[in-house]
Design a protein that fits this description.
Alpha-Beta Plaits; 2 domains; 35% helix; binds (2S)-amino(hydroxy)ethanoic acid; binds manganese (II) ion
């Protein structure tokens, strides 16, 4: 089995739970994953560094002392996640640098592979944390003040035993890249359905995430007549169903309520409080805006009708991100040279490339997800597609090095 597959296999055991992988940022498992990657990179002779908020860099010098060409992705996962989302781009980036070094390919720009800290937002309520601080979209203070669902602040977790890697030098000043290429699984069914093995990503969907807190009145499930109730969960449920209808009506957008909290969460007590988290996305920002309008109208109506309090707290807002035409051209050239059809595809999933695209030309390469499954333990990509993606990444880095 190749280094790529062996490493993905090995990494996929780090943080494995019953149904999938759990590697939230600065957990023991995620720290172990970064340690593993640093060890593999050092064994291949690369320079390993980290920055002050946990982004991990490996670097291959170039002929020029210029801004680096970067590739990267993330090692953290969602709860019950798969072994390829993020990890594939991190391990694949290492394998691409090793392939270029083995072939003795002389690059003008230094090449860096980055493992961005906390892309998923599965512990701290902000996704793409490491790449957005790196790109200056989030201040370090804002990141440090974030509080995880377990109550611990980012600052404390960063200082804790699973924060920075002990034996890795910390780079103080971020080096803005001259270009960025991210290799990632598609996480959807399009490539597989079209019999394709490589995708050239055109844009990354914009997204809005909100916390919706509902205050009603707890009470005895048996004694309070329906007409007297201020049931916080039923208010949340009405909002959820109506938002699903709105997303279908507006079209070309998706709305998900993937997190629900009910208090006191007892069978025989009417819920007095409920918290739901909404994730809305589209490559068309106007449709996301219309969805938020619908939510605001709905909240006003449900507040009135059910006599409950409803607070909408924005957690995240990212505009749709078109990827760089010239770098996309480099990916297209490589896909053709490898003998595959050029297939342009938008990304419904968010990626660190959204942030890096704000400071440098960025592009993405997709490989198929079997059955379109992702963010689940049975996330899979065929080994030959995993290998092909790394080859495409290595060649794209060479092409981009020439171009930039
Ligand atoms: O949610 C996303 O799209 C990404 O997987 N963080
Ligand atoms: Mn990802
Ligand atoms: Mn993900």
């Amino acid at each position: 089995m190749s280094d790529l597959l062996e490493r993905l296999q090995r990494l996929g055991e780090v943080g494995r739970t019953g149904e999938g992988i759990e590697r939230p940022l600065f957990s023991e498992a995620e720290h172990q994953a970064r340690t593993l990657l640093a060890g593999w990179a050092r064994a291949s002779g690369f320079d390993v560094q980290q920055d002050a908020i946990g982004n991990l860099f490996i670097r291959r010098p170039g002929a020029w002392a210029s801004p680096p060409l970067q590739t990267g992705s993330h090692l953290d996962t969602v709860k019950g996640g798969g072994r390829y989302d993020g990890a594939y781009g991190v391990v694949g980036g290492l394998c691409a640098l090793e392939a270029l070094a083995r072939r003795g390919v002389e690059m003008r720009h230094p090449i860096e592979r980055v493992a961005w800290a906390g892309e998923e937002g599965s512990r701290f309520p902000k996704g793409c944390l490491g790449s957005s601080v790196y790109a200056g979209l989030t201040t370090r203070q804002q990141a440090l003040a974030l509080r995880g669902d377990d109550g611990m602040s980012f600052a404390d977790a960063l200082r804790g035993p699973s924060g920075l890697l002990a034996e890795v030098p910390v780079r103080e000043t971020p080096r803005m890249p001259c270009g960025y290429v991210e290799l990632h699984i598609e996480q959807g069914p399009i490539l597989e359905r079209n019999g394709l093995r490589l995708g050239v990503v055109t844009a990354i969907a914009g997204q809005r995430r909100l916390r919706i807190s509902i205050g009603g009145e707890a009470g005895h499930a048996g004694t309070v007549p329906m007409a007297y109730r201020r049931d916080a969960f039923n208010a949340a449920a009405e909002i959820a169903v109506e938002l699903e209808r709105a997303a279908r009506r507006i079209g070309e957008c998706v709305a998900t309520i993937g997190m629900v909290r009910v208090e006191p969460n007892q069978t025989n007590v009417i819920p007095g409080r409920a918290e739901i988290r909404l994730d809305v996305r589209s490559v068309d920002d106007e449709r996301v805006r219309r969805m938020i309008d619908e939510l605001e109208q709905l909240a006003r109506a449900v507040r009135e009708r059910r006599n409950v309090s409803i607070e909408l707290e924005p957690l995240e807002e990212r505009a749709a991100t078109p990827l760089d035409p010239a770098l996309r051209g480099a990916v297209r050239t490589v896909v053709e040279a490898l003998g595959h059809p050029v297939f342009e595809i938008p990304s419904g999933a968010g990626h660190d490339a959204m942030c890096i695209a704000k400071v440098a030309p960025a592009a993405m390469i997709f490989v198929p997800s079997i059955g379109g499954a992702s963010h689940v333990g049975h996330e899979r990509t065929a080994p030959e597609d995993l290998q092909l993606g790394v080859t495409a990444l290595a060649e794209t880095l060479v092409e981009a090095d020439r171009l930039l």
